[in-house]
Amino acid sequence: MLQLVRCARILRPKKNGTLASIQPHRTHLSFKASDLTYRLTSHPKPKPANPEECAFGSHYTDHMLSVKWDEENGWGIPCIKPLENLSLHPATSVFHYAIELFEGMKAFHTEDNRIAMFRPMENMKRMYMSAERSCLPTFDQKELLDCISELVRVDQDWVPRSNKASLYIRPTMIGTEPSLGVQRSLSALLYCILSPVGPYFKTGTLNPVSLLADPKYIRAAEGGAGAYKLGSNYGPTISIQHEAEKQGFQQVLWLYGDNQQLTEVGTMNVFVFWINDHGDKELVTASLDRGLILPGVIRSSLLELAKQWGEFKVTEGVITMEDIILKLQENRILEIFGTGTACVVCPVERIRYMGKDYHIPTMENGPYVAKKYYKQLTDIQYGKVQHEWSHTVVDNVKK
Ligand SMILES: Cc1ncc(COP(=O)(O)O)c(C=O)c1O
Fold first, then answer.
1. Is the terminal CB of the chain with fewer CB neighbours within 10 Å at N or C?
2. Ligand 1 centre and the CA of 219: distance in Å?
3. Whether the CB of 51 sits within 6 Å of ligand 1
4. Angle between helices 120-133 and 297-309 (to 10 degrees)
5. Cα of 132 from ligand 1 centre, angstroms
6. Going along 249-329, which residue ranges are E strands?
7. Which residues form a coiled coil (predicted)?
8. Which CATH superfamily is domain 209-366 in?
9. Whose CA is nearest to atom 2 of ligand 1?
């Protein structure tokens, strides 16, 4: 049963008879899911007729989660309320200094009639690290997950009943300090919105993409913030992505350093499956140690699965464009693919580098590894197999 309480402050009588607003159970450390208040819409929006047709981020559900923080009082009471516009002073720090972080995760309607998320605590951990890096308030990760799960439960009718679509979950935190000072924000807003999304690969098969790799541009640098999911990492990539599209490529391959290391593909981690110098099959991905790449949830899942399978060597290290070109000449590149929540895996078929096009034989090679991962992960996400990575939010979904 939902507890229906307005998301207003609670009024208590003061000694002099007037009313003072107070925030019960406030803690500086975290908000709590057990304090959630609800203001539910009386005008639910029509759901998209065919969620499989929903473009990414084009539809939003009826409700949002919202919780405020300020330096003096700590976290406020979390609230689930109708999705609404924000009203902020034009000097607010998020607008001027991009004090903002976000996460991207999904809920799925499973074959065994549950609504489940995929490894959501990994997103909570990453969000916590992004908050620390942004000098925004931290929180109890489990409490945030419980609040988000509750939001998904409230809007459960929006989770597409399809194994080709899902509900994208976008937790966000912004600095709300109305000041132009370049300084830590003394107030913040954490919110979460939900959006039904269609399949990344419309045809159902893994469609390969082509990449523009221009060493003129980098996405992140050592000592920078590329390992955190901050909006400020994404804005400056858009003109390069636009340039790639104008030249007929779907994504940017982000290189780094004098030896032009492969770091990420667009907003995905990058994996190369090749035959190494010892003649063994090896799956290689950029390592996390210099903070150049986002520690993807799908990336770490692939690494863990590969170790369990024990079929080929797995390495986190440095991959350079020279490695790729040399191994291509020797027919030792088997597959290159990107990984991320949006697509799970995304095969690469062509790279333009220094004015030359390199064909990558990912599709000719199956793609064996990319397909195996795609199947295994989507089987877990859509509940075709039982797995500890599937986090149930609603059991026995009402039909
Ligand atoms: C820059 C970047 N790299 C990698 C990823 C993949 O991360 P995940 O597997 O957690 O979706 C994302 C996706 O959000 C991203 O934005």
1. N
2. 13
3. no
4. 130
5. 19
6. 251-256, 261-265, 268-275, 281-286, 313-317
7. none
8. D-amino Acid Aminotransferase, subunit A, domain 2 (3.20.10.10)
9. 267
